[in-house]
Amino acid sequence: MATFATLKRWARRVKRDGVTLWFAGKNPATPWYAKALGLLVAAYALSPIDLIPDFIPVLGYLDDVLLLPGLIWLTIKLLPPTVLTECRLQADEWMATKGAKPTSMAGAVLVILLWLAISAAAWFWLQPRL
Question: For residue 129, what is the DSSP state?
């Protein structure tokens, strides 16, 4: 039972830190490299569409369990401590008042464009050479 509670707290922190990155991307004190990576990660984290759909066995949850938390962790490490504290407070307030994380249509568009680029590359690669 303790393991379940630990996993639940971890998932809640990851969700909160995704929203934290959203606020950090808007903060003028955030360095440009952390802001660029943070906005990209936040757009994907808050996107209603996954890069790897969850219905694909094993791989579908790989981005949710490994990729996304790893990118969030890396971006959080790039943030200055004062910005991180301020943005975490904003994220906690947002989630307490709104009850959910925001959604990112930019993230959805990013995922769709990535899938289109992968599809186009695969189509060109699979074309017979004349």
Answer: P
Sign of CA dihedral 98, 48, 105, 23: positive
Q: Is the pTM of this model over 0.70?
A: no
Owner of token pair 């008042």: 97
**12-57 per-position pLDDT tens digit:** 788 888 888 888 988 999 999 998 888 888 777 777 777 777 677 7
Whole-angstrom distance, CA of residue 78 vs CA of residue 49: 26
| Amino acid at site 93 | E
Long-range pairs of 119-125 with CB within 8 A, sequence gap ≥ 24? none
Return the structure tokens found at 82.
């004062």
| Rounded CA separation 104/49 (Å) | 9
Please tell me the least confidently modeled range out of 40-44, 95-99, 100-104: 100-104
C-alpha 50/C-alpha 107 separation (Å) is 9
Cα–Cα dist 82/84, whole Å: 5
Structure tokens at 54: 């969850």
Residues in the chain: 130
